[in-house]
């Protein structure tokens, strides 16, 4: 619980559930008969609706990006350090919109929701989604809020894929696209790590082929292991070394004892896995990791990212982190190279950090300065009527 | 099945089971009431028993390092490319000894063996081992074979830890120590990956707290996932990209279909996991990954590797591989630095390779040349009576 709400916080916020009645055709060919999005907004939409920023969350994120849900709330939203009055995504300037993604498990329509055709939760029968489906659902959200064009669409990791897809699907509706610690497509190694996580979930006897809700159980252990696997890959080797070294949590190496030894890093991972398993849905995890694997920015553009980006009309900011080996700087540089070849306006920064992929969520002076400067400049351009 | 046994093969070989009656005190304080080692040997021990080479296998290895078990054998031993007449570990010159390690599951005493006190398999009650316990059991093996001093002790990965521990525990009994793709201790990230694998095994309902043999079941899925996790970390990102890219094994990305898509890399990993789970023992996997985690070369030397290596009397060859991120070249260089500071004789080579940690098992011209040259030189020195 914060002693008091900090002055640079967006304060107490309340999510709202928005219902969209019109059926949504999906990339897979199926049609979602209406859907709901759980959304938080911070700041105020200006008169000409030109200051709206869309925040696209990553795999384990949700709509609660900033502020507190109550005075008793122990922790603020997941990107609170970056969103608020005077912060890099300045709510004095921007109207910030953050939905829980379609297929998610924090209030938006997803595998936990009731399938209107059966009256039962969708579970594993929820349609497979592509990132473009998120974009289309978010376009409906923009319509509902009266936003014709986003001042910026911002996302890290999978959220960066979401942001890039916006720039291609609705070129006229995005002024700036901010792509952080992302990639145009996953590598085989990345797909492999996702498959390990999915295997862990499917292996849990409580998974029941995805029908666990029907049986009143939760595949907590599988989901926990899935998260542990992800977590190891989001941290750098060096950070783990600094954070845990080879410190023991229990046991001893003394000769003459065979009590089990447990390293700090083991219990830390277990804690992370358990906490995640309490709040997340296994079918959502499977669904969204598949979206990550399938994403390939240029697939429909003859596998030519330059041709793909020629459709974009916005300016781009691309950010990577030096120690991120899951979405390495090389992946971001491929995005930059394609943008340059497509003659798009792009700013790129590789931020020195020991924090691995997780760096995109965490405080870092240079990262904040780059984001703040870029967005302040974007606001100035927009105020002058330019992109 | 080989059409014919190649000329540079050690040919048809037969493992032998050696029984050691004298109790073996273990680092944990318990005592193993006698033990058995399954062993293969290639080449001939010379008259003064000065040409014996000990091969220390890694986590998933065994005693079958070279040759074939029958004319119908489809595959030779796991290091056949390196061991044989005229090969880098030349059986015309050396008498090569490769035991399955204590605690293993390929014939040596381990969790699958009968605990003489209960008449039941040890299972999870098998004593926790340290790498030094392997060294002591292998010293008994040397005694039995009439080998006072090894011409060389050679090992990769965990086997390299085994080799280094030999050099410290029995300085007078090792002439040359060859440490390949190894480390003086694991990093927190390495421990984390091992813990993920152990969690997968313990999660399998067929694991039954390690008592699966009693129930006539095998935790195949958990063991398979454990192997999959390991396997991803043994390969480099680049190799996986070259080997699998984003090629599909099933399904299609065409719009208008929601059939599941499976990437090649996913089915490859599943195949590897299943194959391993058929042949390996889950309790052995837990036991040996813990040995890896616990290993810390300098723990008993006031955490000073230089002080530790001052006890060694042998010459060292240290080899690393450029794309190995599980046991990176940096880890090998730490070994080299400590050896140099301890005024030991050391040769070091970092081999260019895209194959990740697995490179230590696979053909590579420069790697073979380094090993061949070093060992030929060692043989010459030994023939001249030097170390």
Question: What are the SSEs and their pairings?
Answer:
Two copies of one chain form a homodimer.
Chain A (H helix, E strand, L loop, with lengths): L15 E5 L3 E2 L5 E2 L2 E8 L9 E5 L26 E2 L4 E2 L4 E5 L14 E2 L4 E2 L9 H15 L6 E5 L1 H12 L6 E5 L7 H16 L8 H4 L4 H15 L2 H8 L3 E3 L11 E2 H16 L2 H13 L10 H5 L5 E7 L7 H13 L4 E6 L13 H19 L4
Parallel strand pairs in A: 5-8, 5-11, 6-7, 11-12, 12-15, 15-16
Antiparallel strand pairs in A: 1-4, 2-3, 4-8, 9-10, 13-14
Structural key phrases:
387 residues, two-stranded antiparallel ribbon, Rna Polymerase Sigma Factor, Chain: A, 8-stranded mixed β-sheet, Rossmann fold, alpha/beta, homodimer, 11 helices
Provide the β-strand percentage band of chain A.
Answer: 15-25%
In total, how many beta strands of chain A? 16
Tally of distinct domains of chain A: 2
Could you say which structural class the secondary elements and strand pairing of chain A correspond to?
A: alpha/beta
* Sheet with the most strands: spatial strand order of chain A: 1-4-8-5-11-12-15-16
- Give the helix level of chain A as a range of percent: 25-40%
Distance between the termini of chain A: 41 Å
In the CATH scheme, what's the topology name of the largest domain in chain A?
Rossmann fold
Q: What's the CATH class label of the largest domain in chain A? A: Alpha Beta
Tell me the CATH superfamily of the largest domain in chain A. Answer: Alpha/Beta hydrolase fold, catalytic domain
Largest interface between protein chains, with number of residues from each side: A-B, 54 and 54 residues
Largest sheet of chain A: 8 strands, mixed
C-alpha Rg of chain A (nearest Å): 21 Å
